Amino acid sequence: MADRKFHTKGFISLLTFGSFIIMSITGIVLYAAPRGMIAYWVNWKFGGLEKPQWEAIHIISCLFFVVVGIYHFINNWTLLKNYLAGKIAGGRKMKKELVISALVILVLVIGPLYRVAPFIYLLDLSDVLKKSWIVSKEFEPPFGHAEEVSLKESRSGGFPSKDRYSQPDLSPEYLPGHQEI
Q1: If 0-12 CB within 10 Å is exposed, 13-18 middle and 19+ buried, where does residue 68 land?
Q2: Angle (CA) 169 172 175, round 5°
Q3: pTM
Q4: Per-residue confidence of the chain (181 residues) as pLDDT tens digits?
Q5: What is the number of domains present in the chain?
Q6: Same domain for 48 and 128?
Q7: CA atoms of 62 and 22, how far apart (whole Å)
């Protein structure tokens, strides 16, 4: 059997596609995941992974996608340059495609910033999904970063930083899972 040459371009294309798939899956999960404070308080998991794990995979796959995408662009620069030169020389300039793609990208950036339709609907749906994880008061932390405070500290009023956290009402009936003994 002859020794096959390693195909770098094919390898990079597969890495780009794979990281795109991972980013898509983690992006969809994080789109619907509860807000951080709620996720940490109720120990939220999806597919056996906690929210910080989903976030880590998403961030690393995004960075990897950028690096591999840059390499893919550089590696295929000659092909792209020849393609564009051929289109221009052939009299079929891509002005219309360039203008339309630039406008689409501009709308994708500006639309969510100004919260216009249909972007507002997608953002509102994400908020609804994130809030749907709070099914009762016990699923909502009594104060910010409550997951970082031990029960002993919370019962004695010894919060990590009294400047940073306001002291909430920690009456026993407010604490999740509280039972009178």
Answers
A1: buried
A2: 75
A3: 0.67
A4: 566 899 888 899 899 999 999 999 999 999 999 988 888 888 899 999 999 999 999 999 999 999 999 998 898 888 888 877 776 666 566 678 778 888 999 999 999 999 899 999 998 999 898 888 877 777 677 777 666 776 666 565 555 544 444 445 555 555 455 455 4
A5: 2
A6: yes
A7: 9
| DSSP bridge pairs for 46 | 49
Burial of 71-101, coded b for 16+ CB within 10 Å and e otherwise, reads ebeeeeeeeeeeeeeeeeeeeeeeeeeeeee
Q: 50 forms bridges with which residues in the sheet?
A: 45
Conformational region of residue 47, where left means phi above 0, alpha means psi within -120 to 50, and beta covers everything else: left
**Contact (CB, 8 A) for 57 and 26:** yes
Same domain as 176, residue 160: yes
- Measure the CA–CA gap between 124 and 112, rounded to whole angstroms: 11
Count of positions (residues) in the chain? 181
Phi/psi at 53 (nearest 5 deg)? Answer: -70, -40
Please indicate, yes or no, whether residues 111 and 146 belong to a single structural domain of this protein. no
Q: Which domain holds residue 63?
A: 8-140
What's the token pair of residue 24? 């898509």
- pLDDT, residue 28, reads 96
Q: How far apart are CA 17 and CA 19, in angstroms?
A: 6
Tokens encoding 143: 């104060």
